[in-house]
Amino acid sequence: MSLLAQSSAVIGMNIKSLPRRLWMSLAMVLASAVVVAVLLAFLAMAKGFEATLQSAGQEDVAFFIRTGSAAELNSSVMKEQVDLLREAPGIASNENGKLVSPELYVIVDGTKKSSGTDANIPLRGMEPQGLALRHNFKLVQGRLFTPGTDELIVGEGVLRQFEGFELGNEVRFGKNRWTVVGVFSTGGNVFESELWADAKVIQTLYNRGSSYQSVRAKLTADAKLEDIQAYIKNEPRLNQEVQTEANYFAVQGEGLSYMAIFGRVISAVMALGALAGALNTMYTSVSDRAKEIATLRAIGFSNLSAFIGTMAEALVLALLGGFLGALAAFLLFDGLSTSTLSGSFTQVVFSFEMSGQLVMQGIWLALIIGFISGFFPAWRATSVPVAVAFQSRG
Amino acid sequence: MKDLYLVYKNLTRKKLRLFLTSFAIFIAFLIFAAVTALQGALNSGVEMSADNRLVVFNKINFTQPLPYAYINKVSGVDGVKNVTFANWFGGYYQEPANQVVTMAVDPDSYFEVYSELVVTPEQKANWLQNQAGVMVGERLANVNNWQIGDRIPVSSNIFSNKDGGQTWDLVVEGIFTANDPQVDTGYMVFHYKYFMETQSWGGDYVGWIVLTTDDPALNEQVAKAIDENFANSQAETDTSTEKAFNKAFIEQIGNIGLIIFGVVFMAFFTILVLVGNTMVLAIRERTGEIAVLKTLGFSSPRIFRMILTESCLLAFLGGLLGLGAAYLVVGGLSQMMARFLPNLVLGPDIVLQALGYMLLLGLITGIAPAYRALRLNIITAFARG
């Protein structure tokens, strides 16, 4: 018999006899499933959060905040400074003039549906050009706010996670009353966790005078960030720094990257524990069948085929567990919408995102567990001399 | 004594299995204790809040300021004992990423209201005299290696200094500690008046007001009186107990915390189930031997006790090692992460909980085989073997 035929015979035998060792086999499957599910839960969370922030930033939008302020919330930009920034080199225009959007960013309280407690929602003050700067901005219900009135539009994320923001509702922040006149989508990114209203109205209601907090500007195709940096440097009245919007959000998105690290560390440590359990299972399973394996070898099966048979058994069980774990993680977490505190002190609504790539990482982990927990017992089973194996009890 | 020797022999008969089983238990308890400590650190703000302390914020949101005049009005409310106030400074040291929690406070009343903080009268007097002086919490001082008398440049990511730039030179006049290790001392406070005079925007507002009531029973009444006082004014207030506020703040992190801890604890119990399965099987293998012991005259209760002892010993062997490792890990982490996660300690409550689970693991895995052994009929056992 060829090695291939021998091996497949042994593999078939081992797999078909799995139900006989039901509890042992289940333990192995469970061990692998748990580790994979834990890993995927963490990765899907980190991935979803990152995607929500990163997809908001555009490479061809320049983003100005006061030097050292790190986030929009802390920054300030005076009206004169906005006018100066408007004249910076490389800024694109449309039919309404320069594509520059000075914005305000204040925090208001909303009531979370999940817990019934108050949480921070950003209320962004904008001018009409601001909407032109958001790619894939879309009104899904109602209409835009009318400048100069206390109307606001609400992101789909806010609508999903917070109470009382339905179209037509009146909402109250402290003394101020607002009317929800529209619901917008920006393709799932972080802007959907915000409320948008007219900048001038917010300046009045929040005692901001004529100041803003950040400025966004669309760049022309041949614009260079260095030229803008040089322009700011040569203008003593400006104390802003410039970066692409994509860069700003990439840094903000790192907020939950510790989740991914934490998840990897936890699942690595847990994998060690599960591995110990799986090894135990496989050793017991092999020593239970020491005589059978010895018999195979005595009637002419090669050591290698016996080895491969045991390995295959471990791999199949681990892989089965891996798929079960991935499936459980997928069913429980994929698309799960939740919100958390971001670096800028406000709620970001995001969804867990399970991708094929993540599932592959889980499957790899399962394969590693299967390989290690199969290798050593298989090695032992085939390296014991046949005669000794027959003498052993069991 | 002889029984213990037998138990020991049984435990160590398969060294590899003993090692693997203890290792899995070790990992399970390591994760359990470390993650529970982490969870405790996140919640410590809630547990450490004083019962009679209330916080007054702007109703719009806690990032919105309150008029300075409110302080006097709040002091006048019946049932209010001490009042102080604070302003968020948005401080960082040297680099924006290196955030330092800094608040501008009223130096006369701050330590009265936060009575769990300990500061020597001498240091406090020095601080009161020095406008540019700063009181640093012990943990923060340790992290940055600051000593009394050090001049530290602290920058703000929000405010600008009138002299230009965003940096204030402050002098460490004192280092405060707390009467409980779980109280956060990872921040520093400096003079509100000095802050207001030197920052470029000026204005007469405060970030928030903190007060203590004469008696916790008065909390609700006082909170209501304050909020009613400012109803329909330019800045409405929201007064809550410190505990409720901290709890709400943690809840802002949201159910992802819940999800994480849920996932980890599920994994912990699964590992225990797996290990339990192995332990049960390991004893079941020995049915024949137990029959021999019985034949030799070992009484059934004696064998029952021996098996339970064995499974509990195994559970505690791995579990205690895991708990010890978690203690070291948490100790190391709390050094490393003192800046982000103060109050990371492996408290006695976690140890007790872990010990409880170990005992439970030992009993549950031992009870089924022990019971079988108790009822074992020698004849059938031999017939089967």
TrEMBL record, chain A:
It is a multi-pass membrane protein. InterPro entries: ABC3_permease_C, MacB_PCD, Macrolide_Exporter_MacB. One of its GO terms (molecular function) is transmembrane transporter activity. Keywords: Cell membrane, Membrane, Transmembrane, Transmembrane helix. The chain crosses the membrane at residues 261-283, 304-333, 358-379. PANTHER family: ABC TRANSPORTER PERMEASE, MEMBRANE COMPONENT OF TRANSPORTER-RELATED. This is Membrane protein. It comes from Bowmanella pacifica.
TrEMBL record, chain B:
It is a multi-pass membrane protein. Residues 263-378 form the ABC3 transporter permease C-terminal domain. It is found in: Cell membrane. Residues 22-228 form the MacB-like periplasmic core domain. The chain crosses the membrane at residues 18-42, 256-283, 303-330, 350-371. Keywords: ATP-binding, Cell membrane, Membrane, Nucleotide-binding, Transmembrane, Transmembrane helix. One of its GO terms (molecular function) is ATP binding. One of its GO terms (cellular component) is plasma membrane. This is ABC transporter ATP-binding protein. It comes from Bowmanella pacifica.
